Amino acid sequence: MTDLDFLREYNGSALRIMEVCGTHTAAIFKSGIRSFLSPKIRLVSGPGCPVCVTVPGYIDRCIEISMREGHELLCFGDLLKVPGTERTLSDAKGVGGRVRMLWSPFDAIALAKGEPETVFVVAAIGFETTAPAFGLLLEEAEAQGVDNLRLITSLKSAVAAIDWVCAMGEEVDAFICPGHVSVVTGADAYSPLAERYGKPFVVAGFEGKSLAAAVRVAAEDAAKGRGGVRNLYAEAVSAEGNARAQAVIERHFEVRDEVWRGLGTVPASGYFLRGVDQPSGFASHEEQATCRCEDVILGRIDPNECPLFGGECTPTQAVGPCMVSAEGACGTWYRGRAEGLGL
Fold it and tell me: pTM for the whole thing?
């Protein structure tokens, strides 16, 4: 039986399988896997988008930096429209804040060298995948004698988030582990979770065939009550992960408790710059009552179950962060609906 035939014909116990990677969510839609799923298998999206779990207090701090005399805030494009407490970075730019979009973190070095009288602050967000790049940015700046470059970090551990979802008792039967993160962490990073919670953890690539196989394996193991780790992305992910990337993270960052949008304070989940007095846990605030990003991030609802989805909240006028980023579940569902993919 092919993987797609299995997914179509499965008639066992009802299962909820969480993909914890925004790129996986998009690839699942693009490949049409959802259209093949038995009603007994439900795919839900987890906290796999770093923009979506960035708290408003971090955005507020970035805005404050952009308004300081002699400072400029540098960030990736998908952070520009993430709502803070009252406004976005794009709004701040419109009222005089110095905000510039980066294509690569290393573009910041040329900017800092070209304008030494300005302090350039890079908004460093992401998971285990991007933390090494920001560490290397610091090393390259030091090597080139650039001393007017800073980071403001909101770097988080996706593995810690998966642990927290399990610990909170969310109704998830199996996990499709994030592919890019797993390249850095290695597949063995999920072994303690599999042992602790008795659930299947399947590392997958990004092609449709790989994802279909991963969903099938996750469903088979979950239906049989079989926990453990399976690596279906062995061409890129080893058991131990990327030792050099891990060493960069260790050199520049220390692990502390961190606040996640939608999850609250997650123990030992934030990467903070060593020797820098940056507070843990930027302040958050209550979301708009009808915005259900928190439930989307935890896989409790599908994005189109939010009352704002596609009406008050669209990619061009987002209310919540899940609609902003290219990796956000709401944005992916919105584009998927428009393109007729799996909805």
Answer: 0.89
